[in-house]
């Protein structure tokens, strides 16, 4: 029996037990895929990240929910970079390339007076229309069709992982949300394994531009993700494409999430438009919480 050390970081917050928790296991090169999946299940985080050697990038990261492997995970990436940095496994370079199943992603490190900020380029955003029942979709998160912001489209979006972006009219509706994740695959006929990400333009924090919640696909083995980096990135792209479409070529947003479940965090998103193509960058911080061991 092996004992594997797990590092617990909370991403998108500087306060322990806020933001989005992630596990990081640093000896990914020595683990089989089945072992990674088992460790992620036992660790119990929405995602556990496994940094490993890469022949074509500075390093590679694989991401596992308790139920399956993910191509990309924003908060898992930030947690992994923090863990590598704080354990002396990164050099002093401020820019690096990370290999993921979603492609090669540039990472930039910025040190401020009191924290390390990690900026990751996400995959180019892709959108697809939702063609299902709006009433059934809203019922699956405990709301009514009248809660939709009718002037904005419901769209599947991806900057590495598919999620369904659902525009909601008022912030107060988020307190009433109750996800029925088991219904999602039948409702999301175009992309049955997508998650559901309701959002609105009202916020708790006057400095924020968008508020969201993130309800997981039932295949992931989790119910809700507290603060979601990849979904925040595609929210920023949605904002640029459908809301701020006539504004400047580059926008910077603060996206808040996690307030309803006591895990509030913030994601900084920058979206630049170049010859009709959108480029998305997501920035966040993290804080070490604790380490523990899992028997394998």
TrEMBL record:
Superkingdom as given in the UniProt entry: Bacteria
Keywords noted in UniProt: Isomerase
Name of the molecule in the record: PhzF family phenazine biosynthesis isomerase
Pfam (any one): PhzC-PhzF
Family according to the record: Belongs to the PhzF family.
Family matches, as SUPFAM superfamilies: Diaminopimelate epimerase-like
NCBIfam families linked to this entry: PhzF_family (TIGR00654)
GO molecular function ontology, one term from the record: isomerase activity
């Amino acid at each position: 029996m092996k004992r594997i050390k797990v590092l617990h970081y909370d991403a998108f917050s500087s306060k322990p037990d806020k933001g989005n928790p992630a596990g990081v296991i640093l000896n990914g090169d020595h683990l089989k895929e089945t072992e990674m999946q088992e460790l992620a299940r036992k660790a119990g985080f929405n995602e556990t990240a496994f940094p490993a050697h890469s022949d074509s990038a500075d390093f590679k990261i694989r991401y596992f929910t308790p139920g399956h492997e993910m191509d990309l995970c924003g908060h898992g990436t930030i947690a992994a970079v923090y863990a590598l940095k704080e354990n002396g496994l990164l050099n002093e370079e401020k820019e690096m390339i990370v290999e993921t199943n979603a492609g090669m992603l540039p990472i930039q490190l910025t040190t401020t007076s009191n924290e390390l900020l990690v900026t990751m380029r996400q995959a180019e955003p892709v959108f697809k229309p939702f063609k299902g029942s709006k009433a059934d979709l809203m019922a699956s998160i405990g709301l009514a069709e009248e809660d939709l912001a009718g002037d904005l489209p419901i769209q599947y979006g991806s900057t590495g992982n598919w999620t369904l972006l659902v525009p909601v009219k008022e912030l107060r509706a988020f307190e009433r949300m109750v996800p029925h994740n088991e219904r999602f695959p039948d409702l999301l006929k175009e992309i049955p394994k997508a998650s559901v990400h309701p959002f609105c333009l009202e916020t708790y924090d006057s400095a924020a531009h968008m508020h969201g919640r993130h309800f997981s696909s039932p295949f992931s083995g989790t119910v809700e993700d507290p603060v979601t980096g990849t979904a925040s990135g595609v929210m920023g792209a949605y904002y640029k494409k459908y809301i701020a479409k006539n504004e400047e070529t580059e926008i910077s947003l603060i996206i808040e999430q996690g307030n309803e479940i006591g895990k509030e965090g913030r994601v900084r998103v920058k979206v630049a438009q170049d010859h009709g193509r959108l480029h998305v960058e997501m920035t966040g911080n993290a804080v070490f919480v604790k380490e523990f061991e899992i028997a394998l």
